[in-house]
Design goal:
Rossmann fold; 5-stranded parallel sheet; binds ligand SAJ
Length: about 425
């Protein structure tokens, strides 16, 4: 099908790069977001999120007139929905953002349009999307009830890009595309082939939904295995990073890395979309979630043990004299994103319980967010922290922290990422 104009609903970490990628192919793109300041920023050719190379792409697209942002949907040939799918109480998926997005585009839909759901979604959501649109537009026909002859085509094509490498992966990763009917799949494929250099692989909507969840659940289970190993190795005096390196020399073994827990908005969330639909059939995924969610508590205990050891070795000191420096607050290396970060959770929890100073060092931000600024956590530079710390807690393996090694200087170290080995 011919696509002259596309609309991307949700201009966040996925929607904005996707809008820019389409605009680069000289497709006229209207990005829609509920956040007025994001809309204004984009219309000035600037960006409101941190992602390498995105600024250049957005600036070029806006300057050349292929990308515009707005608060209100307008008619287009294709609509891509890229809004968040968080979970609510008891880890149930919250589909309200998708439903709102669907209802917001319904008034401007016309016969022949394509609607693609990119948001990570529980199995069955694409079908629900089709029902929500039908409820708003009884004058049009939809694929869940009318099959191949429907007026509107609907497909799921989950995003799979890694924050920090979005602009590269958006173009080079393979895409899994699942329509409600084969014609829906084919229409969606036509759109992605305009900017994707990886393979566009066809399936049905349910399989595409499950595929995305499976990818992130698989990563969660693998990280849980590494985290479990790290606890066992700590007890037995084995260096878990050396162990994993050695085991990974086996041609069929590829163990991931332990850390202070699993953060971000995907790996720690998406397995719940499978679990909540099949609680009795997911003991492994539930165990992985528990292992990864409990890792921060284990790290806090290790830090408290180190503090006690310092007090034992230096009886003239009191606990208030001891400064804990938390190196890294982001949810993973070399990004500035503090949301759902196990490092942040550990630093805040230590700041609330430790009577001495607790320093938070995060070279990728200039100040702590307002929500944390009032806590007992003190934002500190790397240089100052290195001078004053008693316990060196490594939480994120940012490249800046690889340039020194307090273990070699005989300091008390709790290294959750294995970069300060002796
Ligand atoms: N982590 C470890 N050990 C590892 C790898 C990661 O502890 O060996 C931790 C990280 O430190 C972080 C968390 O896991 O706290 C998640 O980081 P990540 O790099 O594994 O993943 P995300 O959340 O940045 O992006 C994931 C990616 N999914 C997969 O790799 C299967 C990405 O491709 C998806 O597009 C993204 O989720 C998403 O949006 O779903």
């Amino acid at each position: 099908m011919k696509i002259n104009k596309a609309s991307v609903i949700g201009l966040g970490y996925i929607g904005l790069p996707t809008a820019a990628a389409l605009a680069t192919q000289k497709i006229s793109v209207l990005g829609i977001d509920v956040n007025k300041s994001a809309v204004d920023t984009i219309n000035q050719g600037k960006i409101h999120i941190v992602e390498p190379e995105l600024d250049v792409a957005v600036q070029a697209a806006v300057t050349r007139g292929y990308l515009q942002a707005s608060l209100t949907p307008e008619p287009a040939d294709a609509f891509l929905i890229a809004v968040p799918t968080p979970f609510i109480d008891d880890h149930e998926p919250d589909l309200s953002y998708i439903e709102k997005a669907a209802r917001s585009i319904a008034p401007v839909l016309k016969k022949g349009d394509l609607v693609i759901l990119e948001s990570t979604s529980p199995v069955g959501t694409t079908d629900k999307l089709s029902h929500w649109l039908e409820a708003e537009r009884s004058d049009l026909t939809f694929p869940h009830s009318r099959g191949e002859s429907s007026d509107i085509r609907i497909a799921h094509c989950p995003e799979r890009v890694l924050p920090g490498q979005v602009m590269y992966e958006l173009v080079h990763n393979d895409r899994v595309i699942g329509g409600i009917t084969p014609r829906c799949t084919e229409a969606a494929r036509g759109l992605y082939e305009k900017f994707v250099r990886g393979e566009c692989v066809e399936t049905d909507a349910k399989t595409a939904e499950m595929c995305k969840l499976t990818e992130n659940a698989a990563r969660d289970v693998s990280i849980a295995f590494a985290n479990e190993l790290s606890v066992i190795c700590d007890r037995t005096g084995i260096d878990v990073w050396e162990l994993i390196q050695l085991a990974n020399r086996h041609p069929r073994i590829n163990i991931l890395q332990p850390g202070p827990g699993v953060g971000g908005h995907c790996i720690a969330v998406d397995p719940w979309f499978i679990i909540s639909q099949s609680r009795d059939a997911t003991p492994l995924m539930q165990a992985a979630r528990n292992i990864n969610d409990n890792k921060p508590e284990w790290v806090i205990q290790k830090v408290n043990d180190s503090v006690q050891q310092i007090l034992k070795d230096a009886p003239d000191k009191t606990i208030s004299d001891i400064t804990i420096a938390c190196f890294g607050l982001a949810f993973k290396a070399d990004i500035d994103d503090l949301r759902e970060s196990p490092a942040m959770r550990i630093a805040e929890s230590l700041a609330a319980s430790h009577p001495g100073a607790v320093l938070g060092i995060e070279p990728n931000i200039s100040e702590l967010p307002d929500s944390v600024a009032t806590s007992a956590l003190t934002f500190e530079s790397t240089e100052q922290a290195l001078l004053t710390a008693d316990v060196y807690l490594l939480l994120v393996d940012h490249r800046q922290f690889r340039r020194f090694n307090p273990s070699r200087a005989g300091k008390v170290v709790v290294d959750t990422r294995g970069i300060w080995a002796l």
